[in-house]
Amino acid sequence: MTKYSIAVDIGASSGRLILGYLEDGLLKLKEIHRFENKIVKKDELFCWEADKLFQEIKNGLHKCMQMGIKPDSIGIDTWAVDFVLLDENDKPLTEAVSYRDPRTDGMMEQVFDHIMKERLYLETGIQFQKFNTIYQLYSIKQNSPEVLEKAKSFLMIPDYFNYLLTGKKVNEYTNATSTQLVNAFTKKWDAQLLDSLGINKEMFHEIKMPKTILSNLSEELIGELGFDMKVILPATHDTGSAVISVPEQDDSIYISSGTWSLIGVENYFPICITKALDYNFTNEGGIDYRYRFLKNIMGLWMIQEVRRNYQDLYSFAELVDMARSAESFKSIVDVNDDRFLKPENMIAEIRNYCQDTNQMLPIAPGEVAKCVFDSLAAIYKVAVAEIEEIFEKKFQKINVIGGGCQNEMLNQLIADVTGKEVNAGPVEATAIGNIAAQLMALGEIGDIKEARSIIKDSFEVKKYVPAQHILN
Ligand SMILES: Nc1ncnc2c1ncn2[C@@H]1O[C@H](COP(=O)(O)OP(=O)(O)O)[C@@H](O)[C@H]1O
Ligand SMILES: C[C@H](O)[C@H](O)[C@@H](O)C(=O)COP(=O)(O)O
Ligand SMILES: [Mg+2]
Q1: Domain assignment of residue 83, yes or no
Q2: For ligand 2, is residue 11 a contact (CB within 6 Å)?
Q3: Do 421 and 393 contact (CB within 8 A), yes or no?
Q4: pTM score, two decimals?
Q5: Res 145: pLDDT
Q6: Would you say the CB of residue 308 lies under 6 angstroms from ligand 1?
Q7: Tens of pLDDT along 331-389?
Q8: 6 Cα: distance to centroid of ligand 1 (angstroms)
Q9: Got any disulfides in this one, which pairs (predicted)?
Q10: Together in a domain, 256 and 111
Q11: Per the domain annotation, does 238 fall within a domain?
Q12: 210 and 258 share a domain?
């Protein structure tokens, strides 16, 4: 009897419900629902609209019913690091504040007064991003200590949605590691670290692995939806699910290309050496206790903001076409400069950077877009060199997955600047990895090796080779 699993993948720019099932040995997908996700200002904080997002999940499930589809399971993945705190009555004490809120400015440095940066890296193996959960919680402790005193539950965004579906409160492993509060070796919440920061460790829940069958829906949800199903934990960190889908892991580097670009390799142990620290690589948890050795790059967030600055006048495809026509424009920016994390106006900020670095200012939309794509390709090249230096080997291929793999100009740029073969696809890598974990939990797929073989057979990837003149 065919099993049907629903993946809920909510990235920083959009969410989608995608139905997945096996047919003739291939993984088939059917998009059920898609919705926008964006940051809004609430009480002077940049927040996600968590209630609206949960309603969109239910809207998608209602659509399933209208299509006569009763999924056997559902799995939710979202962006990392962000969370909600619940009080003793399981009522939210906080909004779902976004990692782009400046409340964490300066917090990392204050945390280093309690634990040396090097020690924190050795214990957790997690990259230093000023928006990591550890710094968000420290900010709450500094500015609203009463909130932390009342907090009885810490739930990351997918954990929170799972709680709303089932009434069960757990923390899923891959996303928990992104907090920089999980010990890379014990794979548990680091009690000593939490104590040293004065953060109440009792509010953290048991860490559960991907493929855990959490529960059935709550009675309330069954009543509302008219059907029941299993709630399964995929790799609830979206990039953790995306990496499951990378068709070829050996000898290849992946770029999970969405709002963020996450560039790295799959590994079987944490690499916490000084060079990895200096280059700010992370060891986020993966499926089956693997590690995602990767680093964050500002990503297509920049072109999303450019598009918004142009009042959504142009599609992403049109921006790419215009960038192609700006062939002679050569200025590039350091996309990882903090100024690009949440600027008032991305176009103005890019121009300011070019001014500050005595480069030509991008004026036309095509020049702005080209500057973004050239700049991303340039920093990818640096990251590839850093990875090869740390692993002391050359990687032959780069797999670009996620929405950004549709950017054919950027794919070709990556091949040209790195001199490597680029394989682009699958677009919905995150949802595919989410579904694969659910089908493994349901016994439809044996293990990750089989899952990757099915995914490779099921989805086309488009190949890009370096332009000939580059290779000569
Ligand atoms: N047709 C297209 N051509 C070029 N780029 C595209 C196209 N469609 C989507 N993209 C890129 O994909 C990005 C969204 O990727 P996605 O993985 O959906 O992001 P997230 O999961 O972070 O919301 C967009 O910001 C855009 O840059
Ligand atoms: C803030 C985190 O680094 C971010 O969530 C990243 O880990 C990630 O998963 C981004 O996924 P998108 O689909 O939003 O690009
Ligand atoms: Mg995504």
Answers
A1: yes
A2: yes
A3: no
A4: 0.97
A5: 96
A6: no
A7: 999 999 999 999 999 999 999 999 999 999 999 999 999 999 999 999 999 999 999 99
A8: 21
A9: 354-371
A10: no
A11: no
A12: no
The atom number, within ligand 2, closest to the CA of 259 reads: 15
Q: Are residues 192 and 289 in the same domain?
A: no
Same domain (yes/no): 64, 107: yes
Catalytic residue among 9, 77, 238, 416: 238
Ligand 2 atom showing the smallest separation from residue 82 Cα: 1
CATH number at residue 35: 3.30.420.40
Task: State both tokens at 433.
Answer: 């990895």
Structural domain total, the chain: 2
Q: Give the domain-ending residue among 170, 205, 232.
A: 232
237 among annotated binding-site residues: yes
238 is in an annotated binding site: yes
Q: Which domain holds residue 313?
A: 246-425
Which of 425, 449, 464 is a domain's end point? 425
Question: What number is the ipTM of this complex?
Answer: 0.98
Residue 401 Cα, ligand 1 centroid: separation in angstroms?
10
Confidence of residue 469 (pLDDT cuts 50, 70, 90): low
On whether both 25 and 110 belong to a single domain, the answer is yes
The whole-angstrom separation of Cα 461 and Cα 443 is 27
pLDDT in tens, 189-238: 999 999 999 999 999 999 999 999 999 999 999 999 999 999 999 999 99
* Residue 238 annotated as catalytic: yes
Residue 88 in this model has a pLDDT that exceeds 90: yes
Both tokens of 245, joined, read 């889908």
320 and 380 assigned to the same domain: yes
- pLDDT band for position 470 (cuts 50, 70, 90): low
Nearest ligand atom owner, CA of 408: 1
Q: What per-residue confidence (pLDDT) applies to 472?
A: 52
**The token pair that represents 366 in the structure block:** 């095509």
Q: Does residue 224 sit in the same domain as residue 282? A: no
Query: Residues 110, 146: one domain?
Result: yes
